[in-house]
Amino acid sequence: MIGGGRIGEALVSGLLHSGFATKDLVVVEKFPARSEELTAEYSIRVTDSIADAAEGADVLVIAVKPGDVDVVLADLGKADLDSEREKLLMSLVAGVPTSRYENRLPAGSPVVRVMPNTPMLVGEGASVIAAGRHVKPDDLALARQVLESVGTVTVVPESQIDAVTAVSGSGPAYFFLVAEAMIDAGVALGLTRATTTELVVQTMTGSAAMLARSGENAADLRAAVTSPGGTTAAAIRELERGGVRTAFYEALSAARDRSAALGSSAD
Ligand SMILES: NC(=O)C1=CN([C@@H]2O[C@H](COP(=O)(O)OP(=O)(O)OC[C@H]3O[C@@H](n4cnc5c(N)ncnc54)[C@H](O)[C@@H]3O)[C@@H](O)[C@H]2O)C=CC1
Ligand SMILES: O=C(O)[C@@H]1CCC=N1
């Protein structure tokens, strides 16, 4: 795991909880304070040397910011790796296309681009994978195996990954924002923050469970809560007046465009 930040930690933590052995994971993290945190929390080996971690690895996971990818690739290029042992490279980095890695790695290197999300920290991630040019069925199966231990896995063509990033990669932030806004609104109505938080969290969890398990779609489930002339209709009218639906169209378009821009700097 190259990059032990928020998403790297989420995958490491999820993998360990799902039964991966600590000895099978090595994290490369360049900030010493962060390394100490990870070592203390997970009892795994953390190093600042990419060469050290990559030697002997079957899978290299890149979890650095898009702007740090070229430095990582340069370090991998300098590392004297065992050329007999083919490594699968899994990039969790937003925006950066598989071709950027393929152009810098030895010819024929298998690269999968993954868009994960942070709920994998609690085993509820939604990961989406797109295969690079040299990915074989076994490589895809290995990527799937790693990611299924922390949630669901969907495979799409790489042309759809920017849109996926807008939906599920950034998606948890939208739900957290809605939760924050509802909690503040409940407090404004005079409820305690603790009571409001408990109610909002359970309402989100219960609504997600209904969407996942009832077999009904979101529009029908919403209609079932909306009594004629009732409280929900009054609330929805205000949300629509506030432009909530248009805001989501615009927000997801902006995220999709930003993902495409992050990857277009070099190819
Ligand atoms: N945070 C999220 O919800 C999601 C993030 N991503 C992607 O995951 C990647 C990482 O994001 P975060 O974890 O949020 O960022 P972060 O900033 O929390 O973590 C990145 C880590 O990489 C380390 N790092 C940077 N250069 C390094 C190098 N050369 N060698 C070793 N370590 C190095 C940094 O010290 C930092 O700890 C990004 O590319 C982002 O697009 C994808 C989906 C969701
Ligand atoms: O905001 C970002 O760029 C990353 C990618 C998806 C979620 N977080």
From TrEMBL:
<feature type="binding site">
    <location>
        <begin position="63"/>
        <end position="66"/>
    </location>
    <ligand>
        <name>NADP(+)</name>
    </ligand>
</feature>
<dbReference type="InterPro" id="IPR053790">
    <property type="entry name" value="P5CR-like_CS"/>
</dbReference>
<dbReference type="InterPro" id="IPR029036">
    <property type="entry name" value="P5CR_dimer"/>
</dbReference>
<comment type="pathway">
    <text>Amino-acid biosynthesis; L-proline biosynthesis; L-proline from L-glutamate 5-semialdehyde: step 1/1.</text>
</comment>
<dbReference type="InterPro" id="IPR028939">
    <property type="entry name" value="P5C_Rdtase_cat_N"/>
</dbReference>
<comment type="function">
    <text>Catalyzes the reduction of 1-pyrroline-5-carboxylate (PCA) to L-proline.</text>
</comment>
<dbReference type="GO" id="GO:0055129">
    <property type="term" value="P:L-proline biosynthetic process"/>
</dbReference>
<dbReference type="InterPro" id="IPR008927">
    <property type="entry name" value="6-PGluconate_DH-like_C_sf"/>
</dbReference>
<protein>
    <recommendedName>
        <fullName>Pyrroline-5-carboxylate reductase</fullName>
        <ecNumber>1.5.1.2</ecNumber>
    </recommendedName>
</protein>
<keyword id="KW-0028">Amino-acid biosynthesis</keyword>
<feature type="domain" description="Pyrroline-5-carboxylate reductase dimerisation">
    <location>
        <begin position="158"/>
        <end position="261"/>
    </location>
</feature>
<dbReference type="InterPro" id="IPR036291">
    <property type="entry name" value="NAD(P)-bd_dom_sf"/>
</dbReference>
<keyword id="KW-0560">Oxidoreductase</keyword>
<dbReference type="Pfam" id="PF03807">
    <property type="entry name" value="F420_oxidored"/>
</dbReference>
<dbReference type="GO" id="GO:0004735">
    <property type="term" value="F:pyrroline-5-carboxylate reductase activity"/>
</dbReference>
<keyword id="KW-0963">Cytoplasm</keyword>
<keyword id="KW-0521">NADP</keyword>
<keyword id="KW-0641">Proline biosynthesis</keyword>
<feature type="domain" description="Pyrroline-5-carboxylate reductase catalytic N-terminal">
    <location>
        <begin position="2"/>
        <end position="95"/>
    </location>
</feature>
<dbReference type="InterPro" id="IPR000304">
    <property type="entry name" value="Pyrroline-COOH_reductase"/>
</dbReference>
<comment type="similarity">
    <text>Belongs to the pyrroline-5-carboxylate reductase family.</text>
</comment>
<dbReference type="GO" id="GO:0005737">
    <property type="term" value="C:cytoplasm"/>
</dbReference>
<dbReference type="Pfam" id="PF14748">
    <property type="entry name" value="P5CR_dimer"/>
</dbReference>
